[in-house]
Amino acid sequence: MxxxxxxxxxxxxxxxxxxVAAPDGSNFTYASLHDRVPHILTDVINDLYxxxxxxxxPEAAVAEGKALTGELSRLKHEMVTNKPxxxxxxxxxxxxAAWNHWLATYFPGATWYQTPFLAWETYMYxxxxxxxxxxxxxxxxxxxxxxxEATFRASMAAVAQLCARVDALxxxxxADPAKRRVAFAELLQASLWGNQTDLSMFPDLTSEALEExxxxxxxxxxxxxxxxxxxxRIWQIAARLRGGRIDIVLDNSGFELLQDxxxxxxxxxxxxxxxxxxxxxxxxxYVSDVTNRxxxxxxxxxxxxxxxxxxxxxxxxxxxxRRLGACWAGLLAxxxxxxxxxxxxxxxxxxxxxxxxxxxxWENALVKxxxxxxxxxxxxxxxxxxxxxxxxxxxxxxxxxxxxxxxPAIVALRxxxxxxxVGIDExxxxxxxxxxxxxxxxGQYGVIQLSPGRWAC
Length: 457
Hints:
- This protein has 2 domains: about 30-135, Up-down Bundle (Transcription Elongation Factor S-II, Chain A), CATH 1.20.930.60; about 145-455, Uncharacterised protein PF01937, DUF89, domain 3 (Rossmann fold, 3-Layer(aba) Sandwich).
- Helices cover about 50% and strands about 10% of the residues.
- The protein contains 17 helices and 7 strands.
- It has helices spanning about 30-55, 60-80, 95-105, 115-135, 145-155, 155-175, 180-195, 205-220, 230-240, 255-270, 290-305, 315-335, 355, 360, 375-385, 395-400, 425-435; strands at about 225-230, 245-250, 275-280, 335-340, 370-375, 410-415, 445-450.
- A 7-stranded mixed beta sheet has the order 1-7-6-5-2-3-4.
- Helix 10 (about 255-270) links the parallel strand 2 (about 245-250) and strand 3.
- It is globular.
């Protein structure tokens, strides 16, 4: 069933089946709802309980923290006992009405196990954020911050070495345009595979596992696992830019964010971009997603690695890291780099609804870009909508209205961690399924996919 690129279907009436938890427990959606996500929520409850015990301050803050653990426990109970999804309570954010209208219009009375994966999972994170934001003493508490920072801290040696590598690569390709295509491909791959460090998918990620991931990225061993690769077509667009604009819709903080920052650094340094706009989340989201605070924390740690409380670095690597951090702080101060945390990114709608439900992000930001990079698995699922697409469906076709001829080039850099995937050769998909039945959920395979938009030849 081909899908018209301009088709804007209702969220509860998609052209292909949405992923819902299988009654027999046989699919990834069920495993996520039954095990993975409740585990994440339990961690938040336990971490908050520990923070309450350690809280030095007014008794009211301690009492309120205990009440919050009760609200989080109630949310978990509703999830695991398959209760209906209830409206969000007003927490002062402007998206509450949109969320509740979406629930009442498209999923009235639906229970957790009846609701599509993308719908219940985003609802859970938004409701969890609201529990904190309605409080007096804990409203600014990022319940994932400690874990995000600890994971980055554990990789500081690799961080410094990577920065030194990209610094040298930048100097070489700035001086010699002939080397830029190879450098671009390397940085694109690094940005892609940085997405493996996703704490919502791998909540127990150890420093040893992180180091192994980083070693594979550095060696190029992951190259054969890019199952759809439009790097050459993307470079043809990037190479035509002289002082263009690049937008990056961010995913995970820490090591993945560093890869994105290094890509942006290179794009500016070699003259491809004069402006880079980063789109983080306004609220804590999917465990490790980037907030404004996370972005500034990374820049501050680069400027002064001692802020991370990490072991000492090699002197040369530390000097490079400090210099790059100072450069990034300058780019932010000068407006060459900009952060825009539109509420749409933590809203209920897929990205095909950007022109109608996300005008602030679409009309005031993304359409002004030459290329928009969407990072990670969740952004991919929201780009194409989380459906059982035929795998060979062209990427641009699955995007719907945002792949219009006057749209910016859209690039997805995603390691596959759920069943939804498009733009894959059918024969290749059969080979992968024969080798590894759950390959699309494993996080071991990636895609670099392009919708050229106004850059189509």
